[in-house]
Amino acid sequence: MWLADRLANLVSGLGGPRDKSTGNLHVHVPRAKAELDAAYRDNWLARKVVDIVPFDMLREWRAWQAPPEVAAALATSEERLCLRDRLLRALRLARLHGGAALLIGDGAPDPNLPLDPETVGQGGLHYLHILPRGQIQAGAIERDPLSPWFGEPKGYTIAGGQPVHPSRVVRLLGAALPDDAMSDGWGDSVLQALLEAIDQATAAAAHIAAMLPEAKQDVISVPGLSQHLSTEDGTRHLTERFAYAARMKGLFGMLLLEGDGRSPEGERYQQKQLDFSGLPEVARLFLQVAAGAADIPVTRLLGQSPAGLNATGESDTRNYHDHVAARQAVELTPAIARLDRLLIRDALGRSEPALRYAWRPLAQASEREKAEVGRLKAETAAMLAREGVVPPAVLGRGVEGWLSGADLFPGIAAAFGRSAG
User: Fold this and answer.
1) Where are the beta strands (DSSP E) in 234-362?
2) Domain Anti-CBASS protein Acb1-like N-terminal spans what residues (predicted)?
3) Is pLDDT larger for residue 253 or for residue 371?
4) What is the mean predicted confidence (pLDDT) over 271-287?
5) What is the per-residue pLDDT across 92-124, written as a single tens digit (0 to 9) for each?
6) Strand 99-105's sheet: what is its strand order?
7) Which of 69, 102, 210, 381 has the fewest CB atoms within 10 Å of its CB?
8) Backbone angles phi, psi at 116, to 5 degrees
9) Among 315, 362, 334, 365, residue whose Cα is nearest residue 57
10) Which of 379, 380, 401, 370 has the alpha carbon at shortest distance from 416?
11) Cα(first)–Cα(last) distance of the chain, in Å?
12) Is the pLDDT of residue 60 over 90?
């Protein structure tokens, strides 16, 4: 026996058979790839929803916590493999289609064999190829909790039937799915749940734009209009008459009509105007709903200043930056961890398990703020040097790394390199 545990009101009918909402039922209707592609190409709001988050996740990139020469070698490998560009395009495709992949190439003749990081030497990575969801098919999900590939596809097949080992693939997902719904190894398009709100927002603006030509209409009441239009000559004479009247109004700003405009025998002129006073708020409301559904503040989605008394938008921007930083840490960093281990060997020719990096913050400090932070760090370094807490060579190395990456003095990293040589 099923028991319904919900709020019910016998007087108003809430929760009972008279409640219109009791018939609501959520039915999943997948969006076709052609529809998603059309929305991305033709709807400006859908394109921004897909593009903004990946762009902001990679906009400031990352900083390796390593000595300058090591960081420079890693940056060189990233640039040679076009990692930032490949990752941005793959993340956009993942959000649009629910998934995408990066194929790691090391020159192996059989991509179905595992890619052992120990076999990758300096310059050992040859390419990173972007594979949209339609060009790579994921195999069955590994359900053995003792397997290192638990929760991931056991293998992949790319276009042409070539099998690929999962160690050679960086899998990027779109919107998350319930675990039992991930039958093909991918996620949902982010537009799957947002497209209705996006369509409503763009439709509201389109309806308002369609009303603009009707904002002002001239209305002329003509006695015996039906009789005039009942004959071909009458229709022609009436059309010519008011076409001439319209030209007079356009040229001289006056409209000539027969009669006094009040009596039944005379023609009467009126002008109707539409009231647009509440429509901007309606359009803005739909845009706010779409922005909330996309987890992107209106100030970022529309590029507009916040409205309202004493509104600065700083809290919205700060919350959004925290949201992006969380996605970098929780989603992106684990997704590319396998690739990063290979990247370290490609750059240095050896493994460095202790190497770490940090995503640069989206909110960039002003020159004044940079100088203030630099002053505090310089005072801290001077205090450590006076107290002798840190060995001078170690402290000097740390100060060198800080100054090289702090963007306070352009060219100082190269100058450190020349002095060391």
Assistant:
1) 268-273, 356-359
2) 35-381
3) 371
4) 78
5) 999 999 999 999 999 888 999 999 999 999 999
6) 127-132, 99-105, 169-173
7) 210
8) -85, 120
9) 362
10) 401
11) 82
12) yes
